[in-house]
């Protein structure tokens, strides 16, 4: 949804754009918090770490989701998203080219920075995710599906890093994290190169 907003942002009125972007960011943080706690709970069991304190956090995160999505709020967000989608469809080729060019530059930069450390690899995952959503939104037909493997590898490595930071070290989790990162390293240059090629087709 935020990819659609970005691609069509030249046509969306500034006040509406800002309201929609703010709402989607807040909703994404709320949903992401619960998703992260769900993953932590599953992994605490898988790796036999003490996750007893997570239950109350998960309950609180679930309550925040319910509070963030009353029926009237859902209707409002749905209306805003329909407007954004319509405006993406009517966006000129020039606007799409600019959006694709920006995404290609950010993706290349993230790839160059990725070997520096875990934080930079997490930043690459975010750029890969945004690129995938942009391709799926603008081109359609699952055009960004080839990015999913890299996105999943980087995401899983990040989950395992967070698990150990929250619940303590685990030799098995650390081993699996290293394997995920190694697998990501092996394919990331090739996958990003293909993504840039796809984006250049839109420029």
TL;DR of this structure?
By secondary structure, this protein is an all-alpha fold.
Question: Could you explain the architecture of this structure?
Answer:
The chain is mainly alpha-helical and 203 residues long. 82% of the residues lie in helices and 0% in strands. The longest helix has 33 residues, at 14-46. It is flat.
Topology, please?
Elements: H1 2-7, H2 14-46, H3 54-68, H4 71-89, H5 93-113, H6 118-138, H7 148-167, H8 171-202
Please give a handful of descriptors for the protein shown.
mainly alpha, single chain, 203 residues, 0% strand, 8 helices
N-to-C order of helices and strands: HHHHHHHH
Tell me about the largest β-sheet: none
Shape: flat
Distance from N terminus to C terminus (CA atoms, Å) equals: 21 Å
Protein structure class: mainly alpha
Tally of individual helices:
8
């Amino acid at each position: 949804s935020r990819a659609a907003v970005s691609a069509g942002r030249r046509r969306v009125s500034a006040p509406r754009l800002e309201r929609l972007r703010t709402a989607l960011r807040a909703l994404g943080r709320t949903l992401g918090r619960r998703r992260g706690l769900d993953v932590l709970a599953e992994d605490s069991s898988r790796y036999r770490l003490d996750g007893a304190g997570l239950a109350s956090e998960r309950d609180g995160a679930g309550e925040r989701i319910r509070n963030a999505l009353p029926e009237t709020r859902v209707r409002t967000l749905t209306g805003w998203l329909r407007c954004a989608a319509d405006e993406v469809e009517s966006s000129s080729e020039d606007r799409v080219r600019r959006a694709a060019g920006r995404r290609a530059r950010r993706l290349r930069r993230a790839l160059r920075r990725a070997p520096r450390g875990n934080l930079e690899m997490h930043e690459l995952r975010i750029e890969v995710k945004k690129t995938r959503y942009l391709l799926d939104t603008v081109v359609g037909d699952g055009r960004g599906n080839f990015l999913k493997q890299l996105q999943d590898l980087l995401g899983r490595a990040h989950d395992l890093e967070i698990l150990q930071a929250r619940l303590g070290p685990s030799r098995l989790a650390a081993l699996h994290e290293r394997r995920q990162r190694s697998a990501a390293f092996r394919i990331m240059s090739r996958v990003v190169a293909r993504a840039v090629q796809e984006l250049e087709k839109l420029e």
